[in-house]
Amino acid sequence: WASLIATILLYMGVALFCGCGHEALSGTITILQNYFEVVRAPGDVLDVFTIIAILKYIIYGLAAGFFVFGVLLLVEGFFTTGAIRDLYGEFKITACGRCLTAFLMVLAYLFFLVWLGVTAFTSLPVFMYYNVWAMCQNASSVEGANLCLDLRQFGAVTISEEKKVCMGSEKFFKMCESNELDLTFHLFVCALAGAGAAVIAMVHFLMALAANWGYLKDASRMQKYEDIKSKEEQELHDIHSTRSKERLNAYT
């Protein structure tokens, strides 16, 4: 049950991160093109649009990879189920389950580090969009201030390009009143929440896998003890039977 709950939490977190992150990146492209007038660079130049496309492919890879990882965790839970061990034999399933559990523990730890990095990376656009959203919300209170949003500060364009929107301009008010900014900001927040849920799921996985590892290790030791005990009892029984036959022969 622990693996099943963790798998559901992981699927929910990954789905939330991938879905909201993909749409947030698409909204970012719309904002850059409509309000900052950023155009795609000709040729194979690495610009902000190419980076966003790469991030989308990474999202596709995360969705596919963690779907497979969730299936592996369900298989691990299947092999460590008591009913399956009783059906197919203790030693066979315990050995297979221990190998699979050890492999998944290593993967879970690596993926835990990956999702920590993804969570930290996702917090960056949330912080940037929060600053833009806060400027829009406080535009009336700081009227007259010469504040600008310069994409060069975020590394979205090169130093030679001047792509900025200043408070008081028509583009700034259109951007603040548009649905793209508010929706993209909240989509990034949801993506950050999904990444956090995935981190919690990976911690849950590590706890469940560690518990399964300990259980299977103890079960293997108990099986060895039972085998040794059964062998000794059989030897004692054979010795007793031999002595009884010798006494019977001597009496005869």
TrEMBL record:
Bilayer-spanning residue ranges: 50-75, 95-118, 185-215
Biological-process GO terms, alphabetical: neuron projection development
UniProt xrefs under InterPro entries: Myelin_PLP (IPR001614), Myelin_PLP_CS (IPR018237)
GO cellular component: axonal growth cone; dendritic spine; filopodium; neuronal cell body; plasma membrane
Membrane topology: Multi-pass membrane protein
Keywords from the UniProt entry: Membrane, Signal, Transmembrane, Transmembrane helix
Compartments reported by the entry: Cell projection, Dendritic spine; Membrane
Signal sequence, renumbered to the chain: 1-17
Keyword Signal attached: yes
Keyword presence, Magnesium: no
Family, similarity comment: Belongs to the myelin proteolipid protein family.
Quaternary assembly: Interacts with OPRM1. Interacts with palmitoyltransferase ZDHHC17/HIP14; the interaction leads to palmitoylation of GPM6A.
Stated name of the protein: Neuronal membrane glycoprotein M6-a
Native organism: Fundulus heteroclitus (Killifish)
